Design the sequence.
């Protein structure tokens, strides 16, 4: 075998090794589109089977949303974005309480909207993403009773434990950004502890404490 041939073989081996090293690590669990599809299917199937029960019992509806959404939602990451610089100065206890309150606020704001969702009113649009992406947006459309189609997009990020959703954007309005605007002003005026207390009180009473854009009608 000539030296030129040996050199070519070594070059090809090294190139293959470099390509393997540069390849993104496989992400555990389903991809962004499959994650949204599976969650939506589970939610709609259960709602269609027991819609009157969930309509009468908000606690059961919250439990359903939490059971399906919680494992797939990066509530701490979203809460950190909402608080911004305030997160850095918050105590561990404040952070934990805010994450919990923020997450339950999300459940309240979108739980009731789910009551009007049926399989024929929710369409998941084709996903356009690259396997190496670390962020993704899965676009869906919800058809209102008036016939209007409302875009409802889910923003996700790739983590060590798989893809996680962290924001919902309805008709171009980001839940996280809207919440951050309102919370930021309120924290400056009243302080973080009082804001957390308000959210926790609303959680216990079933009130709505965060901005949301209805997709029902």
Sequence:
């Amino acid at each position: 075998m000539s030296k030129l041939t040996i050199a070519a073989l070594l070059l090809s081996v090294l190139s293959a090794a470099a390509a393997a090293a540069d390849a993104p690590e496989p992400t555990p669990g389903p991809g962004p589109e499959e994650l949204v599809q599976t969650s939506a299917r589970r939610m709609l199937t259960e709602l269609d089977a027991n819609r009157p029960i969930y309509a009468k019992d908000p606690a059961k509806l919250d439990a359903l949303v939490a059971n399906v959404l919680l494992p797939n939602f990066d509530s701490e990451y979203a809460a950190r974005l909402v608080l911004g610089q305030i997160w850095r100065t918050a105590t561990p206890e404040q952070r934990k309480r805010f994450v919990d309150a923020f997450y339950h606020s999300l459940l309240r704001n979108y739980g009731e909207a789910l009551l009007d969702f049926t399989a024929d009113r929710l369409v998941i649009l084709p996903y356009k993403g690259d396997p190496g992406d670390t962020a993704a947006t899965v676009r869906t459309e919800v058809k209102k009773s008036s016939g209007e189609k409302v875009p409802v997009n889910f923003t996700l990020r790739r983590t060590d434990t798989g893809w996680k959703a962290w924001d919902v954007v309805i008709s171009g309005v980001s839940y996280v950004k809207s919440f951050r605007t309102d919370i930021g002003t309120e924290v400056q005026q009243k302080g973080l502890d009082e804001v957390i207390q308000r959210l926790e009180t609303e959680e216990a009473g079933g009130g709505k404490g965060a901005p949301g854009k209805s997709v029902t009608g």
